[in-house]
Amino acid sequence: MKQKEDFDTYYRNIWQERWDALKSAFAGEPGYCTLEEGLLKPYFLDKASTYPAQALDVQKGDTVLDLCAAPGGKTLILALAKGEAGVLVANDKSADRRIRLKTVIKEHLPVSIAATVQVTGYDAATWGLYQKDMYDRVLLDAPCSSERHVLSSPYYLAQWTPARTKQLAIRQFAMLAAALDAAKAGGRIVYSTCSISPLENDGVVEKLFKKRKGLFDIVELEPELGEKTKYGIQILPDTAGAGPIYYCCLEKRHG
Ligand SMILES: C[S@@+](CC[C@H](N)C(=O)[O-])C[C@H]1O[C@@H](n2cnc3c(N)ncnc32)[C@H](O)[C@@H]1O
Fold first, then answer.
1. Minimal-distance CA residue to ligand 1 atom 6
2. N or C: which end of the chain has fewer CB within 10 A?
3. What confidence tens digit (pLDDT) does each residue in 187-212 have?
4. What is the pTM of this model?
5. Catalytic annotation present for 194
6. Which whole-number Å values give the CA distances from 220 to 14, 55, 143, 229, 230, in the listed order?
7. 245 close to ligand 1 (CB < 6 Angstrom)
8. pLDDT of amino acid 2
9. What is the mean pLDDT of residues 18-38?
10. DSSP calls for the chain
11. How far away, in angstroms, is 227 Cα from ligand 1 center?
12. What is the structure's pLDDT at 3?
């Protein structure tokens, strides 16, 4: 199948001799962990997914925006950190996925915390037009190439083209610019994807540096798991036994 060969060639060019190890790690089981403490019942997710949510460093009573929230694993982490005070807006454009998100919130969060979570269905890319300088913390866990998923699905592999990652990077940039607009001065923004395409990771942050120069700084994080990239941290399954996840933490400047 041509797409399979094109996909393989595209990622081999990027990852070189590491590509074979990554590909075989993708075929294995994700590195699941269980969120339990503070929840009504356990929630299972890839351990790597917990890191971007924790990097947001949500404080009790914060005003938090989760721009692409469904199905909601990271929303649970943010909601527990925020506690009963403050507000968490959990947004997702997909109506079907919002149903799942609402169920996850209802079944897992204590009522006193669930009552402070609002589920909305807007386009993340235009959020900053309506609410500027509002949030202490913004998570953008963006839709991405999800190569692990593509490799395991003949349906998605058949649709893959090299143009896809470029198109996604354009959308992700629009969403990240909106996330920056939505944050308060001094507020923190975490950008994350489960892609291994550099265009969708550091490439998006690089573009933000060019287009929103002087408006934000990178927050340097020491990776407990994973490896540093130019701007963020990438957790890859061949070495970390979890992921892939990329995340980068920004702080919006004052003035
Ligand atoms: C990587 S998933 C989010 C996973 C979620 N944060 C979690 O931890 O469970 C990306 C989500 O973005 C949503 N999405 C895609 N395009 C969007 C847009 N333009 N605005 C808001 N949400 C969007 C998708 O429906 C999908 O649920």
1. 69
2. C
3. 999 999 999 999 999 999 999 999 99
4. 0.98
5. yes
6. 25, 10, 24, 11, 10
7. no
8. 82
9. 94
10. -HHHHHHHHHHHHHHGGGHHHHHHHHHS---EEEE-TTSSS-EEEEHHHHHHHHHT---TT-EEEESS-TT-HHHHHHHHHHTTSSEEEEE-S-HHHHHHHHHHHHHHS-HHHHTTEEEE---GGGHHHH--S-EEEEEEE-----HHHHHT-HHHHHH--HHHHHHHHHHHHHHHHHHHHHEEEEEEEEEEES---GGGTHHHHHHHHHHTTTSEEEPP---SSSEE-SSSEEE-HHHHSS--EEEEEEEEPP-
11. 25
12. 84
Site to substitute for ligand 1 among 33, 44, 75, 92, most atoms within 8 A of C-beta: 92
Which ligand 1 atom minimizes the distance to the CA of 171? 19
Distance CA 218, CA 180 (A): 12
Whether 116 contacts 63, CB under 8 Å: no
User: Superfamily for 2-252?
Assistant: Vaccinia Virus protein VP39 (3.40.50.150)
The pair of structure tokens assigned to 163 is: 């143009």
Q: Which of 144, 194, 248, 249 is catalytic?
A: 194
Task: Among 32, 35, 67, 68, say which to mutate for ligand 1: greatest number of ligand atoms within 8 Å of CB.
Answer: 68
Is the Cβ atom of 206 under 6 angstroms away from ligand 1? no
73 lines ligand 1 (CB under 6 A): yes
Ligand 1 and 93: CB distance under 6 A: yes
